């Protein structure tokens, strides 16, 4: 159970110290421009187990600093909920495996990504504005949906949120009857690729139809509780957005979905020891009773995934492929926990296993071929080690400008890996409000410098005009999911027009980053 943070928690949290140890977590939140993220709320959820969480001081001050006392000790998912637009341009973010313990944990400076402001109005098929529609989002690198700070439509059906730059999915969940326009409205999601602010206008939620299904265990016919039920569009292979899609204690589920032709996929929880299953070709609204699926027992494949620093990391995706056909294998729970451990249920066979980290850590994809899973033992162990992929390195000394200051270059938005649409150059300490020129190239390491390989783009820096070191800015270089780029190098600089420099412009150091899988 989680608790939205409030100052009122302080007294209650103090009263629980006799039965549960409280720990202190501190740090400072800044955005990608280096500005403090003030008045952000921090929400804490236990990564495993259950229990009530008590928090005191879960807000940032005007300088972005926070010091939160959290009870009980343990590993947490920390969700940062910044102020909504127009008060902030920062995107809400989750951090897994945050440790609360006897020793105070200082996270130091935590950087939150700035995003794009997206607005719109949610209506039903009759054009009626829908009130209290839940709105959340998910990027390709997210394993779970993330909450917006203001995650519900208002009395006029409008929403106003910050989403990450690049590909993003926004989910819309109908609110409680009667406010969302009637029980015939279904959930839906939108695919976005945001590069700046946008107004989506009217988002029309589809008609919804109630359907029912259930799951039982093959060995004894007992109901399968808490299995996740996904509706997969047969034409595209995409998964429909369907919140609250888990079976109850009787193994049954009744849910509202939009019209479509689906394969209905059942993903039981790991400790049930059951394989996923599929009810194919179910047409909605052609039928409301989808049928009962019988789920078979499987074998546990487990292990620990570490970085090249020998540390276990959470949120590493674990994927399986048939070693002969290379076809993906349906598994559930294929994500490491707070200590880097995973456990999935699979059928006996031979598999290639792929471990894929999120872009937020400096590691790449690890592949292990021909992993044999048989039914002779209770489990099979396969560990993984992620190769190092540094965010970037700096070369040279640069050229100083006003005040003798060399402008700085760095990178944010994660590791330089294939498919990272948010890899961003970050500039600071330049002449305030000056005009900069971003110069960059992506080329094989063996290719010599050549002007034909370079790209240039003007960049207007923030800050106060004429103030030394006050200029800041960012420039996003999306990395395509193109295997031909593996091993190539990104080289980048910023040139800033600056009359105080002997060259007429100041120059950052050279940033280099090697693109990896």
Tally of separate helices:
1
The largest sheet, given as strand count, sense and whether it forms a barrel, is: 6 strands, antiparallel
Which class do the helix and strand fractions yield?
A: mainly beta
By CATH, the architecture of the largest domain is named Sandwich
Total individual domains: 5
State the CATH class of the largest domain: Mainly Beta
| Rg calculated over all Cα atoms | 25 Å
Descriptive account of the structure:
It is a single chain. This protein is mainly β and 517 residues long. It folds into five domains: 9-112, Immunoglobulin-like (Sandwich), CATH 2.60.40; 116-204, Immunoglobulin-like; 208-295, Sandwich (Immunoglobulin-like); 299-385, Immunoglobulins (Immunoglobulin-like, Sandwich), CATH 2.60.40; 393-514, Immunoglobulins (Immunoglobulin-like). Helices cover 1% and strands 46% of the residues. It has one helix spanning 9-15, and strands at residues 23-31, 41-46, 54-56, 65-71, 74-81, 93-100, 105-112, 116-123, 134-138, 146-152, 158-163, 166-173, 188-194, 198-204, 208-217, 228-233, 252-258, 260-267, 277-284, 289-295, 299-306, 317-322, 328-329, 341-346, 349-356, 366-373, 379-381, 384-385, 393-395, 408-412, 424-430, 435-443, 455-460, 471-476, 489-497, 505-507, 510-514. The strands form ten sheets. Strands 29, 32, 33, 35, 36 and 37 form a six-stranded antiparallel beta sheet that branches. The longest helix has 7 residues, at 9-15. The two termini are 37 Å apart. The model is unreliable at 1-19 (pLDDT under 50).
Summarize this, please?
This protein is 1% helix and 46% strand. It has one helix at 9-15; strands at 23-31, 41-46, 54-56, 65-71, 74-81, 93-100, 105-112, 116-123, 134-138, 146-152, 158-163, 166-173, 188-194, 198-204, 208-217, 228-233, 252-258, 260-267, 277-284, 289-295, 299-306, 317-322, 328-329, 341-346, 349-356, 366-373, 379-381, 384-385, 393-395, 408-412, 424-430, 435-443, 455-460, 471-476, 489-497, 505-507, 510-514.
